[in-house]
Write the C-alpha cells for this entry.
Amino acid sequence: MDFIKFEAKDHIAILTLDRPGQNAFNYQMYKELKDTFDTINSTEDIWSVIIRAEGKYFSAGNDVNDFQEGVIDVSMEEYGYMVEAGLGSVVNCEVPVISAVQGIAVGSGFCIPTYSDIVIATPEAKFGITEIKVGIIGGAPEASLSLPPKIVRYMALTGNLITAEEMEKHSFVLKIVPSNDLLDTAIEIAQSIVRNPPIALKYMKESLNNIYRPDIIAQKIEFDGEKTGQHMQTEDFGEAVTAFIEKRKPVYKVK
C-alpha cells in the first residue's frame, strides 16, 4: 500500500497515515483504509488498533483536488461509496481502536477519531468539521457519536477548528500528552486493553456499537451524501472548491 502503513506486534496493530503533504485522503487512500481494517478483522491475533500519522497533520480530510473535473476516473457515486466504506471500517472494526492525534484533524481526518473508541492528542492538535467550506454536507453525523449537539452544530455550520484542550473538556479527548509521548501513551493504553480476554473484547465492542448504532449513523451519512450531490449541481459548489484551491475568498451567486 502507498499511503497506509501497517505493523502488528504483541496483539496490537499500528496503522499509520502517510500521504505526503497533509495526509489528505484520495480514493486510493480510502480503499487502503478499508482493506487494512478488513485484514485486521480477519486476523485473530490482533486485539487492539492504534491509528497515528506521519508529518505535522493527522489528516487534512478529503483531497479537494479530486472534486475537479477529470481528476478521478470513477463516478462520484463510486467515490462516495469508498469514502463511506473506508471511514466506516474504523467504527466497524471488531476490536478497540485508539486514535493518536497530532496537528490538524479535519473533515475525513476528523471522522477517524470520532469513530475510534479512545482519542489522545498533543497540545497543538485541532479538530474540525470543515466540509462546509468546500460545499460538502457531512461530518456532523459522525461527530454526534461523541460530542454535545450544540458543539456539533457550531463546528458544522462555521467550519471553525476546536483545540485539543476544548475537546478534552467535552470528553472527546481522553488526555493531552506531549508529541514525543503520543505513540508511547497510545501503546500503554492498548496494552491495558489487550490484557483482557480477546473474545470478551470483541463482544464488548459489539455491545458498545449496539449502544451507538453505526447503521443509524450510516443512514444519516447517506442523507448528507444526497444533499452534497444536490449541491454539486450548483455554481456555488464549483466556486467553493476553486476558491479553496486558489486560496482566495469565494464569491457566491446563490445559484
Notes: The first strand starts at residue 4 and ends at 9.
